[in-house]
Amino acid sequence: MIQYPLTLKNVSKRFGGKAAVEGVSFEIGSGEIVGFLGPNGAGKTTSIRMSLGLISPDEGQVKLFGETPGANAFGRIGFLPEERGLYKKQTARESIAHMARLNGMAGKLAFKLADELLDKYGLSEAKRKKNKDMSKGMAQKVQLLSAIAHDPEFYILDEPFSGLDPVNQQVLESIVREIADRGRTILFSTHVMEHAERLCDRIILMNGGRKVFDGSTEEALNTAPRRMVLASEAANLTDLVTPFVKDIETRKDGALMLTLKDEAEAHSVLETCVEKKIKLTRFEPRPPTLHEAFVALVGDDVRADMQLTPETSADEGMT
Amino acid sequence: MTIIPRINMRRTLLIARRDFLGYVKTWGFWLSFFLPFILIIAGAVIGIAAATFNFDVTPTRYETILDKTGVHAQALRDSHEDRLKEREKDAILALKAFGVLPEGEVEKIEKIYEQQGLDGVKSHVINNTPITKEQLDKTTSRISSDLIFIDPPADTLDGLQAYLREEKLVTVDGEEVKLNGALIISPPRTAKDGEAYVQYWSQNFNHTRVKSMAEDYFKERAETTYLNEGGLNRRDLKIASRIEPYQTFDPTKAQGADKDSQAVTASDKLPYYVAGILSGILWLTVFSGSYMLLTSMLEEKLNKLLEMMLASTRFSEIIFGKLIGVAAITLLAMSPYILSGIFGVIGYIAFGTDSEIVNGLINSFSIKMVVFFLVYLILGYLFYGAFFIALGALSQSMQDAQTLTTPITIILTLMVWIVPYGISNPDSPILTFASIFPLSAPFAALVRLPSDPPLWELILSSGFLALLTIGVIALASRIFRFGVLSGSGAKVVTDWFKRKILRKKQRKSCKA
Prior knowledge:
The structure holds 2 protein chains of 2 kinds.
Chain A: E1 6-15, E2 18-28, E3 33-37, H1 44-52, E4 59-64, E5 77-80, H2 92-102, H3 107-120, H4 136-148, E6 154-158, H5 166-181, E7 185-190, H6 193-199, E8 202-207, E9 210-216, H7 217-222, E10 227-232, H8 237-241, E11 245-250, E12 256-260, H9 266-275, E13 280-286, H10 290-298, H11 310-314
Parallel strand pairs in A: 3-7, 3-8, 5-6, 6-7
Antiparallel strand pairs in A: 1-2, 1-4, 8-9, 10-12, 10-13, 11-12
Helix pairs in contact in A: 2-3, 2-4
Chain B: H1 9-24, H2 27-52, E1 61-67, H3 73-93, H4 105-128, H5 133-145, E2 147-150, H6 157-164, E3 170-172, E4 175-177, E5 181-186, E6 197-202, H7 209-229, H8 234-240, H9 266-303, H10 306-309, H11 315-351, H12 355-364, H13 367-394, H14 398-424, H15 429-436, H16 441-448, H17 455-486, H18 490-511
Parallel strand pairs in B: 1-2, 1-5
Antiparallel strand pairs in B: 3-4, 5-6
Helix pairs in contact in B: 1-11, 3-4, 3-5, 9-11, 9-12, 9-13, 9-14, 9-16, 11-12, 13-14, 13-16, 13-17, 14-16, 15-16
């Protein structure tokens, strides 16, 4: 029995002399939900294309279901590429059924399944609608359903959330959870950390064509700096907390955003304030986010490429 | 790596089916499919309606001749009458095409017309053929009524102007009609004018019939005068210059008892024309199919669905699927013409009256011709089709596609010249080369077939084309993969070429 649906060993790929992926190794275990994270140009799409055999690595080895990627994996993979579309003149059910049939499903069954899926995900009205007449959100849902209709063993979803409105992002998340509940393996790339945080057992962080982190979500969060918000009317608050922090930023509302030193603890800051009889109006240890973990791992220069979560957006109040 | 692409037939046919339905489910396809039938039916309806309601499709023109010389008017009108009779005779002879004139009748009618005139022809036809008087009158009636000369309603050009401008109408058989044109014949102004100075006046100045009739009349008169001066006459000249067309003989034809047994007949010539037509059909299939593949590929690329499909299908399956799908569309689009052709040929062989044409058709569709037509049709379509698919995969827009396909379009257009050249020069070295050179082989080899080229040449030509077709499909598969996944246009091809091919050469030369 194959333990790893996907294995990459020291895989590199160059385009015109420029390394798109360099020495990347990882395995995706059966039943895992893996977030493949990184900014634009990190090498996610190239790694995915190599995983599927669409392009060959210059160096290293890729194994899909224990074999070189190719026709053997057809029907066992559900792939949603980053750049996706639909045949404009096909209807939604035809699109889904066509892909399901290409993946080995019998004709009648494929159409029946297409109808069921469209009903299930609130697209009944789109059944007979031509793709060109559908809204962008509807079309994206149809694209996803086309990729997964044949219920494969391994789902590879490249930026599945991009371009979706918040409501449809929720729908997509629920679809991914349903797939995961059936014990299927999922690898999805995204630069929206919030989705990865909510959905993944494990994350692989890519930057500049290299893997910078591979571990559980919890492990990733542990790499993020510990932060807390502190507010007081006392004038000497900043001086008082300086020994505990790496960095202090003043927010628009006057509160301080502290980044704690590695050895420092939030409760030590609180104890010191109590000792010095400082009256605190706010004391909020902030749980780390994947975004912060990512920035800590790869540096601040990629911040612009990574989509901010609502939580981190709140921090934008900093001066 | 094997050069012959592996394909799963089920997936290939599914792709073919989608491509086929993608075209067939559009109203534009069915409009173009039914348009010829619609036009034929519309033409028939108009024809029947015109006949039923006596609606004149070409209304009668009323013309007049104002002859100030007093010499030519009547002669011109007589010449017009003669022309009408000639046309009526031709209309009777045209009935041969419908099989109502028995064989040998054409020559008889020509002779009777010469000796007894049109009336003699008419009575002969009524008495000796299945054609009835009513049928004959119907055939000839329209010809005599489309141009009528009337007496001039005024004696001067100024007087005629009002009629020509339709300010006044003329009365013919109690009915007021407009005067369409007037031929004004005046004495010559200079020697250059010849026998007369002629003007033609009409609002419809592009109408040439009366003008050319006058030109012929005066030319004939000038010739007659010239001949008379030398003591000759037109009739003798006509007899003297009536030479039977030279007969062509074929030395390879079997010699029989008859002295003309080796003479070339329509039955011998027909296979060449049939080969030309088949080559034309092949060209049309390749040309329209290739462009359909190009646009289908481009549409596919712009739809951004290929990458998703590539996780479920091989490149080669997509290529073959498209080739099969578009071939089916092309065949369906051409089916009315192909079926009409097949039924027409079979029908004529079974019921045709002209034995020479029947034999010619049988000779034209020899087993060799049919087999090689199919071989070249399939290979030619696959070869050019794969080429266009690869180009479509590399294109980002229609402009890109047009730029990339220009060279191959020029080559394909040049092939149009091969057919007429091949019919008259089947043994030309150019045609021999063209029938082996893969780009022109499908078209040129077919045209050569009736001249019975050596079989090894045909096998070499089709084998070479088959090998190259496999190569092009393999190459197309690679270009396709590269073009689709790079998402780039034509510039990338040149960059890739420089990087992969030129650098390799450079490295090799450096090593050397």
